[in-house]
Amino acid sequence: MKLKLNAISKSFGPVKANSNINLTVDNGEILGLLGENGAGKTTLMNILTGLYKPDSGTILIDNQLKEFQNPREANKSGVGMVHQHFMLVPVFSVTENIILGTEPTTRFNKIDLKTATDKVVKISSEYKLDVDPNALIEKLPVGIQQRVEIIKILLRNAEILIFDEPTAVLTPQEVTEFFEIIKSLKKTGKAIIFITHKLHEVLEICDRINVLRRGKIVGEAFPTKTNNKKLAELMVGRTVKLRTSRRKMEKGKELLKVNNLSILSDKKEPILTNIDLVLHQNEILGIAGVQGNGQTEFIEALTGLRKASTGKIVYFGKECINITPRKIHALGIRHIPEDRQKQGLIGDFSLIENIILNTYYEKDFSNNLKLNWLNAKKEARRIINQYDVRTNSEDISANKLSGGNQQKLLIGREMSRSINLLIASQPTRGVDVGSIEYIHSQIIKARNKGIGVILNSTELEEIIALSDRIIVFYEGKIIAEFPSNSDPKIIGLAMAGVK
Ligand SMILES: Nc1ncnc2c1ncn2[C@@H]1O[C@H](COP(=O)(O)OP(=O)(O)OP(=O)(O)O)[C@@H](O)[C@H]1O
Ligand SMILES: [Mg+2]
Q1: Which pairing describes strands 30-35 and 208-213: parallel, antiparallel, or unpaired?
Q2: Atom 10 of ligand 1: nearest residue by CA position
Q3: Distance CA 291, CA 369 (A)
Q4: Which of 139, 141, 142, 212 is packed most tightly, with the most Cβ within 10 A?
Q5: Integer Cα distance of 161 and 93 in angstroms
Q6: Strands, E, within 232-389: which ranges?
Q7: Which residues partner with 51 through β-bridges?
Q8: What is the number of the ligand 1 atom nearest to the C-alpha of 35?
Protein backbone atom coordinates (compact mmCIF):
# COMPACT_ATOMS: atom_id res chain seq x y z
CA MET A 1 0.00 0.00 0.00
CA LYS A 2 1.01 3.56 -0.69
CA LEU A 3 0.65 6.29 1.89
CA LYS A 4 0.37 10.01 1.32
CA LEU A 5 -0.07 12.64 4.00
CA ASN A 6 -1.16 16.00 2.68
CA ALA A 7 -0.69 19.30 4.54
CA ILE A 8 -1.37 17.81 7.99
CA SER A 9 -1.60 20.30 10.86
CA LYS A 10 -2.33 19.70 14.52
CA SER A 11 -2.20 21.98 17.55
CA PHE A 12 -2.57 21.30 21.25
CA GLY A 13 -3.72 24.64 22.62
CA PRO A 14 -0.92 27.05 21.75
CA VAL A 15 1.52 24.26 20.74
CA LYS A 16 1.72 23.64 17.01
CA ALA A 17 2.81 20.02 17.05
CA ASN A 18 2.43 19.48 13.28
CA SER A 19 2.37 22.23 10.73
CA ASN A 20 1.51 21.61 7.09
CA ILE A 21 3.25 18.24 6.84
CA ASN A 22 3.53 16.40 3.53
CA LEU A 23 4.92 12.90 3.58
CA THR A 24 4.79 9.80 1.39
CA VAL A 25 5.79 6.16 1.83
CA ASP A 26 5.66 3.53 -0.87
CA ASN A 27 5.15 -0.17 -0.48
CA GLY A 28 8.43 -1.97 -0.02
CA GLU A 29 10.01 1.23 1.28
CA ILE A 30 11.45 2.09 4.69
CA LEU A 31 11.13 5.79 5.50
CA GLY A 32 13.19 7.10 8.42
CA LEU A 33 11.65 9.88 10.47
CA LEU A 34 14.10 11.98 12.46
CA GLY A 35 13.58 15.01 14.63
CA GLU A 36 14.35 16.63 17.97
CA ASN A 37 12.41 15.75 21.10
CA GLY A 38 9.02 17.36 20.72
CA ALA A 39 9.40 17.90 16.96
CA GLY A 40 6.05 16.23 16.35
CA LYS A 41 6.93 12.70 15.17
CA THR A 42 4.69 10.75 17.55
CA THR A 43 1.84 13.22 17.06
CA LEU A 44 1.97 12.75 13.29
CA MET A 45 1.95 8.98 13.68
CA ASN A 46 -0.92 9.17 16.17
CA ILE A 47 -2.88 11.06 13.52
CA LEU A 48 -2.07 8.42 10.97
CA THR A 49 -3.27 5.65 13.30
CA GLY A 50 -6.51 7.41 14.20
CA LEU A 51 -5.61 8.29 17.79
CA TYR A 52 -5.82 12.02 17.03
CA LYS A 53 -7.77 13.88 14.38
CA PRO A 54 -5.77 16.44 12.40
CA ASP A 55 -6.95 20.07 12.53
CA SER A 56 -6.50 20.15 8.78
CA GLY A 57 -4.94 18.08 6.00
CA THR A 58 -5.70 14.68 4.52
CA ILE A 59 -4.57 11.06 4.63
CA LEU A 60 -4.55 9.11 1.36
CA ILE A 61 -3.98 5.37 1.18
CA ASP A 62 -3.66 4.01 -2.35
CA ASN A 63 -5.08 7.36 -3.48
CA GLN A 64 -8.20 6.94 -1.39
CA LEU A 65 -9.13 9.59 1.11
CA LYS A 66 -9.29 8.29 4.69
CA GLU A 67 -10.77 9.89 7.76
CA PHE A 68 -10.09 7.75 10.77
CA GLN A 69 -12.30 8.23 13.81
CA ASN A 70 -10.29 5.78 15.92
CA PRO A 71 -7.38 3.31 15.74
CA ARG A 72 -9.71 0.46 14.83
CA GLU A 73 -10.65 2.22 11.59
CA ALA A 74 -7.00 2.87 10.79
CA ASN A 75 -6.32 -0.83 11.44
CA LYS A 76 -9.06 -1.77 9.00
CA SER A 77 -7.38 0.37 6.35
CA GLY A 78 -4.08 -1.44 6.92
CA VAL A 79 -2.27 0.93 9.29
CA GLY A 80 -0.55 -0.55 12.36
CA MET A 81 1.77 1.02 14.92
CA VAL A 82 4.25 -0.24 17.48
CA HIS A 83 4.17 2.54 20.06
CA GLN A 84 7.04 4.34 21.78
CA HIS A 85 5.72 3.11 25.12
CA PHE A 86 4.36 -0.43 24.74
CA MET A 87 0.72 -1.10 25.32
CA LEU A 88 0.77 -4.69 26.58
CA VAL A 89 -0.93 -6.13 29.66
CA PRO A 90 1.90 -7.64 31.75
CA VAL A 91 -0.14 -10.37 33.47
CA PHE A 92 -1.67 -11.66 30.21
CA SER A 93 -0.10 -14.24 27.93
CA VAL A 94 1.31 -13.39 24.50
CA THR A 95 -1.79 -14.69 22.72
CA GLU A 96 -4.19 -13.00 25.13
CA ASN A 97 -2.45 -9.69 24.47
CA ILE A 98 -2.42 -10.17 20.74
CA ILE A 99 -6.14 -10.85 20.48
CA LEU A 100 -7.17 -8.23 23.02
CA GLY A 101 -10.06 -6.29 21.49
CA THR A 102 -10.57 -8.71 18.59
CA GLU A 103 -11.06 -11.95 20.49
CA PRO A 104 -12.25 -14.74 18.16
CA THR A 105 -15.11 -16.60 19.81
CA THR A 106 -16.58 -20.09 19.43
CA ARG A 107 -20.23 -20.71 18.65
CA PHE A 108 -21.01 -20.47 22.37
CA ASN A 109 -19.40 -17.07 22.69
CA LYS A 110 -16.36 -18.41 24.49
CA ILE A 111 -12.97 -16.98 23.60
CA ASP A 112 -11.34 -19.36 21.14
CA LEU A 113 -7.79 -19.39 22.43
CA LYS A 114 -6.78 -22.38 20.31
CA THR A 115 -7.51 -20.67 16.96
CA ALA A 116 -5.82 -17.51 18.22
CA THR A 117 -2.73 -19.42 19.34
CA ASP A 118 -2.48 -21.13 15.95
CA LYS A 119 -2.58 -17.78 14.19
CA VAL A 120 0.13 -16.39 16.46
CA VAL A 121 2.33 -19.40 15.78
CA LYS A 122 1.79 -19.04 12.03
CA ILE A 123 2.78 -15.37 11.87
CA SER A 124 5.63 -15.91 14.30
CA SER A 125 7.17 -18.55 12.03
CA GLU A 126 6.37 -16.72 8.77
CA TYR A 127 8.48 -13.74 9.83
CA LYS A 128 10.90 -15.73 12.03
CA LEU A 129 9.79 -13.88 15.13
CA ASP A 130 10.25 -16.86 17.42
CA VAL A 131 7.66 -15.98 20.07
CA ASP A 132 6.12 -18.47 22.51
CA PRO A 133 2.35 -17.83 22.35
CA ASN A 134 1.79 -19.04 25.92
CA ALA A 135 4.49 -17.03 27.68
CA LEU A 136 3.45 -14.33 30.15
CA ILE A 137 4.34 -10.82 28.93
CA GLU A 138 5.94 -9.77 32.23
CA LYS A 139 8.40 -12.66 32.00
CA LEU A 140 9.62 -11.70 28.53
CA PRO A 141 12.59 -9.49 27.67
CA VAL A 142 11.72 -6.16 26.03
CA GLY A 143 12.95 -7.32 22.63
CA ILE A 144 10.44 -10.17 22.59
CA GLN A 145 7.65 -7.96 23.93
CA GLN A 146 8.25 -5.77 20.92
CA ARG A 147 7.83 -8.74 18.62
CA VAL A 148 4.50 -9.41 20.31
CA GLU A 149 3.47 -5.89 19.30
CA ILE A 150 4.60 -6.64 15.75
CA ILE A 151 2.57 -9.87 15.59
CA LYS A 152 -0.38 -7.95 16.96
CA ILE A 153 -0.42 -5.52 14.04
CA LEU A 154 0.41 -8.17 11.42
CA LEU A 155 -2.51 -10.26 12.65
CA ARG A 156 -4.72 -7.28 11.92
CA ASN A 157 -3.35 -7.31 8.34
CA ALA A 158 -1.31 -4.13 8.60
CA GLU A 159 0.36 -3.08 5.34
CA ILE A 160 1.63 0.28 6.56
CA LEU A 161 3.74 -0.32 9.64
CA ILE A 162 4.90 2.40 12.00
CA PHE A 163 7.68 1.88 14.52
CA ASP A 164 8.09 4.68 17.06
CA GLU A 165 11.61 4.47 18.48
CA PRO A 166 11.63 0.67 18.49
CA THR A 167 15.36 0.44 19.08
CA ALA A 168 15.51 2.74 22.13
CA VAL A 169 14.87 -0.19 24.46
CA LEU A 170 16.78 -2.89 22.59
CA THR A 171 20.23 -4.35 23.15
CA PRO A 172 22.62 -4.19 20.17
CA GLN A 173 21.97 -7.88 19.48
CA GLU A 174 18.21 -7.28 19.55
CA VAL A 175 18.63 -4.31 17.20
CA THR A 176 20.37 -6.55 14.67
CA GLU A 177 17.53 -9.04 14.93
CA PHE A 178 14.94 -6.28 14.66
CA PHE A 179 16.58 -4.99 11.48
CA GLU A 180 16.34 -8.48 9.99
CA ILE A 181 12.65 -8.49 10.83
CA ILE A 182 11.92 -5.15 9.19
CA LYS A 183 13.97 -6.11 6.15
CA SER A 184 11.81 -9.17 5.71
CA LEU A 185 8.67 -7.07 6.17
CA LYS A 186 9.96 -4.71 3.50
CA LYS A 187 10.53 -7.66 1.16
CA THR A 188 6.90 -8.68 1.47
CA GLY A 189 5.94 -5.21 0.26
CA LYS A 190 5.00 -3.47 3.50
CA ALA A 191 5.39 0.30 3.71
CA ILE A 192 7.40 1.10 6.83
CA ILE A 193 7.96 4.26 8.86
CA PHE A 194 10.84 4.01 11.30
CA ILE A 195 11.44 6.64 14.01
CA THR A 196 14.73 6.75 15.89
CA HIS A 197 17.25 9.14 17.46
CA LYS A 198 20.18 7.01 16.40
CA LEU A 199 21.49 8.44 13.18
CA HIS A 200 23.59 5.44 12.20
CA GLU A 201 20.43 3.33 12.28
CA VAL A 202 18.57 5.38 9.67
CA LEU A 203 21.70 5.37 7.57
CA GLU A 204 21.86 1.60 7.80
CA ILE A 205 18.27 0.56 7.25
CA CYS A 206 16.26 3.30 5.53
CA ASP A 207 15.65 3.99 1.86
CA ARG A 208 14.81 7.64 2.50
CA ILE A 209 14.86 10.01 5.47
CA ASN A 210 12.55 12.90 6.41
CA VAL A 211 13.57 15.36 9.10
CA LEU A 212 11.09 17.21 11.32
CA ARG A 213 11.88 20.33 13.31
CA ARG A 214 9.35 22.21 15.44
CA GLY A 215 6.42 20.61 13.68
CA LYS A 216 7.64 21.11 10.12
CA ILE A 217 9.44 18.91 7.61
CA VAL A 218 12.78 20.67 7.16
CA GLY A 219 14.48 18.28 4.82
CA GLU A 220 14.72 15.01 3.00
CA ALA A 221 17.90 12.95 2.75
CA PHE A 222 19.13 9.69 1.28
CA PRO A 223 21.47 7.40 3.24
CA THR A 224 23.93 7.17 0.38
CA LYS A 225 24.21 10.95 0.12
CA THR A 226 24.35 12.07 3.74
CA ASN A 227 26.09 11.31 7.04
CA ASN A 228 25.70 11.53 10.84
CA LYS A 229 26.93 15.08 11.05
CA LYS A 230 24.73 16.49 8.31
CA LEU A 231 21.66 14.73 9.69
CA ALA A 232 22.34 16.02 13.21
CA GLU A 233 22.60 19.58 11.94
CA LEU A 234 19.43 19.27 9.91
CA MET A 235 17.61 17.99 12.99
CA VAL A 236 18.80 20.51 15.52
CA GLY A 237 19.50 23.51 13.27
CA ARG A 238 23.04 23.99 14.58
CA THR A 239 26.35 22.14 14.72
CA VAL A 240 26.29 19.29 17.23
CA LYS A 241 29.34 17.85 18.93
CA LEU A 242 28.82 14.12 18.57
CA ARG A 243 31.71 13.31 20.90
CA THR A 244 32.01 14.46 24.49
CA SER A 245 35.29 15.93 25.71
CA ARG A 246 36.52 14.91 29.11
CA ARG A 247 39.68 15.77 30.99
CA LYS A 248 41.45 13.30 33.21
CA MET A 249 40.92 13.75 36.95
CA GLU A 250 42.39 12.38 40.13
CA LYS A 251 39.76 10.45 42.01
CA GLY A 252 38.74 11.77 45.41
CA LYS A 253 37.42 10.21 48.63
CA GLU A 254 35.56 6.94 48.72
CA LEU A 255 31.79 7.41 48.35
CA LEU A 256 30.44 3.95 47.93
CA LYS A 257 31.74 0.53 48.79
CA VAL A 258 29.92 -2.66 47.89
CA ASN A 259 31.09 -5.82 49.51
CA ASN A 260 30.17 -9.39 48.65
CA LEU A 261 26.67 -8.37 47.62
CA SER A 262 24.32 -11.14 46.52
CA ILE A 263 20.69 -11.09 45.49
CA LEU A 264 18.35 -14.04 45.18
CA SER A 265 15.18 -14.12 43.11
CA ASP A 266 11.77 -14.91 44.63
CA LYS A 267 12.45 -18.51 43.70
CA LYS A 268 15.78 -18.33 45.55
CA GLU A 269 17.82 -18.48 42.37
CA PRO A 270 20.92 -16.28 42.29
CA ILE A 271 20.53 -13.00 40.35
CA LEU A 272 23.73 -11.38 41.63
CA THR A 273 26.66 -13.15 43.20
CA ASN A 274 29.42 -11.65 45.32
CA ILE A 275 29.61 -8.18 43.83
CA ASP A 276 32.51 -6.04 45.06
CA LEU A 277 33.14 -2.49 43.94
CA VAL A 278 34.28 0.92 45.09
CA LEU A 279 33.29 4.34 43.75
CA HIS A 280 35.12 7.57 44.53
CA GLN A 281 34.45 11.27 44.22
CA ASN A 282 35.31 12.67 40.78
CA GLU A 283 34.81 9.30 39.21
CA ILE A 284 32.39 7.94 36.64
CA LEU A 285 32.09 4.19 36.85
CA GLY A 286 30.45 2.68 33.78
CA ILE A 287 28.53 -0.57 33.97
CA ALA A 288 28.53 -2.29 30.61
CA GLY A 289 26.78 -5.51 29.80
CA VAL A 290 23.96 -7.00 27.84
CA GLN A 291 20.71 -6.22 29.61
CA GLY A 292 19.47 -9.00 31.84
CA ASN A 293 22.81 -9.83 33.44
CA GLY A 294 21.95 -8.39 36.83
CA GLN A 295 22.65 -4.68 36.28
CA THR A 296 19.05 -3.63 36.84
CA GLU A 297 18.78 -5.58 40.09
CA PHE A 298 22.13 -4.22 41.24
CA ILE A 299 20.95 -0.65 40.73
CA GLU A 300 17.67 -1.48 42.47
CA ALA A 301 19.61 -2.76 45.49
CA LEU A 302 21.76 0.38 45.57
CA THR A 303 18.71 2.62 45.48
CA GLY A 304 16.62 0.76 48.04
CA LEU A 305 14.16 -0.67 45.55
CA ARG A 306 15.18 -4.30 46.04
CA LYS A 307 16.33 -6.31 49.05
CA ALA A 308 19.82 -7.73 48.97
CA SER A 309 20.26 -11.22 50.42
CA THR A 310 23.76 -10.86 51.79
CA GLY A 311 26.66 -8.44 51.68
CA LYS A 312 27.33 -4.81 52.48
CA ILE A 313 26.59 -1.45 50.91
CA VAL A 314 28.50 1.36 52.56
CA TYR A 315 27.78 5.00 51.71
CA PHE A 316 30.21 7.60 53.05
CA GLY A 317 31.61 5.06 55.49
CA LYS A 318 28.21 4.09 56.89
CA GLU A 319 26.48 0.74 56.39
CA CYS A 320 23.28 1.37 54.39
CA ILE A 321 22.09 -1.98 53.12
CA ASN A 322 18.34 -2.44 52.72
CA ILE A 323 17.37 1.05 53.84
CA THR A 324 14.45 2.94 52.29
CA PRO A 325 14.74 4.94 49.04
CA ARG A 326 13.83 8.08 51.01
CA LYS A 327 16.75 7.62 53.41
CA ILE A 328 19.05 6.99 50.47
CA HIS A 329 17.76 10.15 48.82
CA ALA A 330 18.41 12.09 52.02
CA LEU A 331 22.08 11.14 51.73
CA GLY A 332 22.29 13.08 48.47
CA ILE A 333 22.13 10.00 46.30
CA ARG A 334 20.11 10.56 43.13
CA HIS A 335 18.68 7.95 40.83
CA ILE A 336 17.75 8.22 37.17
CA PRO A 337 15.73 5.00 36.70
CA GLU A 338 15.80 3.09 33.43
CA ASP A 339 12.04 3.22 32.92
CA ARG A 340 10.90 6.84 33.15
CA GLN A 341 7.20 6.01 33.01
CA LYS A 342 7.16 3.21 35.58
CA GLN A 343 9.68 4.50 38.07
CA GLY A 344 10.56 8.10 37.30
CA LEU A 345 7.46 10.17 36.74
CA ILE A 346 3.77 10.06 37.48
CA GLY A 347 2.06 10.62 34.13
CA ASP A 348 -1.11 12.19 35.50
CA PHE A 349 0.73 14.61 37.77
CA SER A 350 1.72 18.07 36.56
CA LEU A 351 5.31 18.92 35.72
CA ILE A 352 5.51 20.91 38.98
CA GLU A 353 4.26 17.97 41.04
CA ASN A 354 6.73 15.68 39.32
CA ILE A 355 9.59 18.06 40.05
CA ILE A 356 8.95 17.92 43.81
CA LEU A 357 7.95 14.25 43.84
CA ASN A 358 10.87 13.18 46.03
CA THR A 359 11.68 16.48 47.74
CA TYR A 360 8.22 17.87 48.59
CA TYR A 361 8.89 17.43 52.30
CA GLU A 362 12.11 19.46 52.26
CA LYS A 363 11.94 22.92 53.79
CA ASP A 364 12.14 24.71 50.44
CA PHE A 365 8.82 23.19 49.49
CA SER A 366 7.04 22.57 52.77
CA ASN A 367 6.64 24.03 56.25
CA ASN A 368 5.12 20.75 57.47
CA LEU A 369 1.64 22.19 57.16
CA LYS A 370 1.46 23.39 53.63
CA LEU A 371 3.31 22.97 50.38
CA ASN A 372 5.04 26.05 49.01
CA TRP A 373 3.72 25.95 45.44
CA LEU A 374 5.44 29.16 44.49
CA ASN A 375 8.86 27.67 45.16
CA ALA A 376 7.89 24.43 43.47
CA LYS A 377 6.84 26.35 40.38
CA LYS A 378 10.10 28.31 40.38
CA GLU A 379 12.11 25.11 40.62
CA ALA A 380 10.08 23.54 37.79
CA ARG A 381 10.63 26.59 35.59
CA ARG A 382 14.34 26.56 36.29
CA ILE A 383 14.70 22.89 35.34
CA ILE A 384 12.51 23.27 32.24
CA ASN A 385 14.71 26.14 31.02
CA GLN A 386 18.02 24.60 31.93
CA TYR A 387 17.28 21.19 30.44
CA ASP A 388 15.41 22.55 27.44
CA VAL A 389 12.21 20.66 28.21
CA ARG A 390 9.96 21.67 25.31
CA THR A 391 6.66 22.75 26.81
CA ASN A 392 4.71 25.96 27.09
CA SER A 393 3.45 25.35 30.61
CA GLU A 394 4.61 23.68 33.81
CA ASP A 395 0.99 22.96 34.74
CA ILE A 396 0.38 20.29 32.09
CA SER A 397 0.56 16.62 33.08
CA ALA A 398 3.82 14.79 32.40
CA ASN A 399 2.20 12.38 29.95
CA LYS A 400 1.51 15.32 27.63
CA LEU A 401 5.26 15.81 27.13
CA SER A 402 6.96 13.98 24.28
CA GLY A 403 9.00 10.93 25.35
CA GLY A 404 12.39 12.61 25.20
CA ASN A 405 11.14 15.67 27.04
CA GLN A 406 9.84 13.46 29.85
CA GLN A 407 13.36 12.05 30.09
CA LYS A 408 14.92 15.53 30.20
CA LEU A 409 12.55 16.61 32.97
CA LEU A 410 13.49 13.56 35.01
CA ILE A 411 17.21 14.10 34.52
CA GLY A 412 16.87 17.78 35.41
CA ARG A 413 15.08 16.86 38.64
CA GLU A 414 17.62 14.26 39.72
CA MET A 415 20.68 16.33 38.84
CA SER A 416 19.48 19.36 40.77
CA ARG A 417 19.72 20.25 44.45
CA SER A 418 22.31 18.76 46.76
CA ILE A 419 23.82 15.72 45.20
CA ASN A 420 26.80 13.56 46.18
CA LEU A 421 26.32 10.52 44.09
CA LEU A 422 24.41 9.93 40.90
CA ILE A 423 23.16 6.52 39.86
CA ALA A 424 22.04 6.82 36.27
CA SER A 425 20.44 4.04 34.25
CA GLN A 426 20.01 4.56 30.49
CA PRO A 427 20.06 8.35 31.07
CA THR A 428 19.76 9.31 27.41
CA ARG A 429 17.17 6.76 26.31
CA GLY A 430 14.89 8.43 23.76
CA VAL A 431 16.78 11.72 23.91
CA ASP A 432 17.79 13.55 20.70
CA VAL A 433 21.42 14.15 19.72
CA GLY A 434 21.42 17.80 20.76
CA SER A 435 20.14 17.01 24.24
CA ILE A 436 22.47 14.03 24.63
CA GLU A 437 25.33 16.47 24.14
CA TYR A 438 23.96 18.63 26.98
CA ILE A 439 23.20 15.74 29.36
CA HIS A 440 26.66 14.25 28.84
CA SER A 441 28.28 17.59 29.53
CA GLN A 442 26.21 17.92 32.74
CA ILE A 443 27.27 14.46 33.92
CA ILE A 444 30.92 15.33 33.33
CA LYS A 445 30.50 18.69 35.04
CA ALA A 446 29.01 16.93 38.07
CA ARG A 447 31.97 14.54 38.17
CA ASN A 448 34.42 17.44 37.91
CA LYS A 449 32.74 19.07 40.91
CA GLY A 450 33.35 15.97 43.05
CA ILE A 451 30.24 13.90 42.49
CA GLY A 452 30.61 10.19 41.95
CA VAL A 453 28.61 8.64 39.14
CA ILE A 454 27.48 5.11 38.42
CA LEU A 455 26.46 4.96 34.81
CA ASN A 456 24.51 1.93 33.62
CA SER A 457 23.89 1.95 29.90
CA THR A 458 23.35 -0.51 27.10
CA GLU A 459 24.97 2.03 24.78
CA LEU A 460 28.60 1.00 24.80
CA GLU A 461 29.50 4.21 23.00
CA GLU A 462 28.01 6.24 25.85
CA ILE A 463 29.83 4.16 28.47
CA ILE A 464 33.16 4.64 26.71
CA ALA A 465 32.63 8.36 26.10
CA LEU A 466 31.92 9.12 29.77
CA SER A 467 33.49 6.53 32.06
CA ASP A 468 36.75 6.75 33.97
CA ARG A 469 36.55 3.05 34.64
CA ILE A 470 34.32 0.36 33.14
CA ILE A 471 33.08 -2.87 34.69
CA VAL A 472 31.24 -5.59 32.84
CA PHE A 473 28.35 -7.59 34.26
CA TYR A 474 27.81 -11.10 33.00
CA GLU A 475 25.39 -13.62 34.46
CA GLY A 476 25.13 -11.76 37.73
CA LYS A 477 28.86 -11.29 38.25
CA ILE A 478 31.45 -8.66 37.46
CA ILE A 479 33.66 -10.48 35.02
CA ALA A 480 36.00 -7.75 33.84
CA GLU A 481 37.24 -4.24 34.51
CA PHE A 482 38.70 -1.79 32.00
CA PRO A 483 40.33 1.65 32.17
CA SER A 484 38.78 4.60 30.29
CA ASN A 485 39.10 4.70 26.51
CA SER A 486 39.40 0.94 26.17
CA ASP A 487 38.77 -0.78 22.88
CA PRO A 488 35.01 -1.33 22.41
CA LYS A 489 35.70 -4.67 20.72
CA ILE A 490 37.43 -6.04 23.79
CA ILE A 491 34.69 -4.75 26.09
CA GLY A 492 32.16 -6.30 23.70
CA LEU A 493 33.83 -9.68 24.09
CA ALA A 494 33.60 -9.44 27.87
CA MET A 495 29.93 -8.54 27.49
CA ALA A 496 29.47 -11.80 25.63
CA GLY A 497 31.11 -13.67 28.50
CA VAL A 498 34.57 -14.09 26.94
CA LYS A 499 37.23 -13.31 29.54
N1 LIG B 1 -1.92 15.04 24.12
C2 LIG B 1 -1.18 16.15 24.11
N3 LIG B 1 -1.56 17.28 24.75
C4 LIG B 1 -0.80 18.40 24.73
N5 LIG B 1 0.37 18.50 24.08
C6 LIG B 1 0.81 17.42 23.42
C7 LIG B 1 0.07 16.19 23.40
N8 LIG B 1 0.77 15.29 22.65
C9 LIG B 1 1.87 15.93 22.23
N10 LIG B 1 1.90 17.21 22.68
C11 LIG B 1 2.94 18.21 22.38
O12 LIG B 1 3.19 18.20 21.00
C13 LIG B 1 4.59 18.37 20.72
C14 LIG B 1 5.08 17.23 19.85
O15 LIG B 1 5.17 16.05 20.63
P16 LIG B 1 5.54 14.63 20.03
O17 LIG B 1 5.26 13.63 21.08
O18 LIG B 1 4.86 14.47 18.73
O19 LIG B 1 7.11 14.77 19.80
P20 LIG B 1 8.17 13.71 19.25
O21 LIG B 1 8.76 14.26 17.99
O22 LIG B 1 7.57 12.37 19.19
O23 LIG B 1 9.31 13.78 20.39
P24 LIG B 1 10.20 12.61 21.11
O25 LIG B 1 11.40 12.42 20.24
O26 LIG B 1 10.62 13.22 22.42
O27 LIG B 1 9.36 11.41 21.28
C28 LIG B 1 5.26 18.47 22.07
O29 LIG B 1 5.42 19.84 22.37
C30 LIG B 1 4.26 17.85 23.04
O31 LIG B 1 4.38 18.37 24.33
MG1 LIG C 1 7.87 10.58 20.25
Answers
A1: parallel
A2: 400
A3: 44
A4: 212
A5: 23
A6: 254-264, 270-280, 284-288, 310-315, 318-319, 333-336
A7: none
A8: 21
Ligand 1 pocket, mutate which of 15, 52, 164, 399 (most atoms under 8 A from CB): 15
Residue 412 has pLDDT above 70, yes or no: yes
d(C-alpha 478, C-alpha 264), whole Å: 16
**Second CATH level (architecture) for the domain 254-495:** 3-Layer(aba) Sandwich (3.40)
- Residue with CA nearest ligand 1 atom 28: 38
**Residue ranges of the chain assigned to CATH 3.40.50.300:** 3-236, 254-495
Which of 301-305, 415-419, 449-453 is least confident? 415-419
Return the bridge partners of 136, or none: 93
Q: How far is C-alpha 33 from the geometric centre of its chain's CA atoms? A: 17
Read off φ and ψ for residue 52, nearest 5 degrees.
-120, 155
Torsion sign, CA atoms 297, 302, 303, 309: positive
Kindly report the pTM of this predicted structure. 0.89
The Cα–Cα gap between 106 and 432 comes to 48
According to DSSP, the β-strands at 333-336 and 15-25 are: unpaired
* Rg from Cα positions in the chain: 23
Q: What percent of the chain has pLDDT above 90?
A: 75
pLDDT at 349: 97
| Fold of the domain spanning 3-236 | Rossmann fold (3.40.50)
Q: Which of 472, 446, 445, 444 is nearest to 458 (CA)?
A: 472
- Distance CA(369)–CA(213), nearest Å, equals 45
Band (pLDDT 50/70/90 cuts) for residue 104 is low
- Backbone φ and ψ for 32, nearest 5 degrees, come out as -90, 135
